[in-house]
Write a structure and sequence with these properties.
Layout: H1 2-18, H2 21-25, H3 27-44, H4 56-63, H5 67-101, H6 104-133, H7 140-148
Helix pairs in contact: 5-6
Amino acid sequence: MGVFRSIGRGFRWTFKSFVDVPSWMGYRSIKGSSQSLADSAKIIFDVSESEREESYQEALKRLGLTEAEAQAKSKALFNLFLAFAGLGLAILCYSVFLAWEGALRSFLVGTTLALVSFATAFRYHFWHFQIKSKRLGCNFKDWWYGNLGGGNA
């Protein structure tokens, strides 16, 4: 019986040495990359608390701005919103043309650039909305209902 047991152990050692599927797949590397991605996502999507709670008027006073200057900044933010939204739309149209022509990699790059442009446009419009509504600390729901009139936020 001892002979068969040693043959079995030898076979298992040989099999595990030559047939190491986790090493072939790069399991440790995949696990490390997945963990890094999860940690990055936690950092990106973590909503941090604001350092101070202040009203719109208190913020104007702290920054030394008048109401007219705030409205001028709001108009500038709205113009930036229009510029980035237009740029995003132009890039998206060109990306669709590239997809039509069969350049799929270029389509993906263009679509990504369009999404970045739209995200920047949203940021500027969100800031414009906060100045226009004279409320700080608005969230996405406030912005959505404030612009579309879909109900009370």
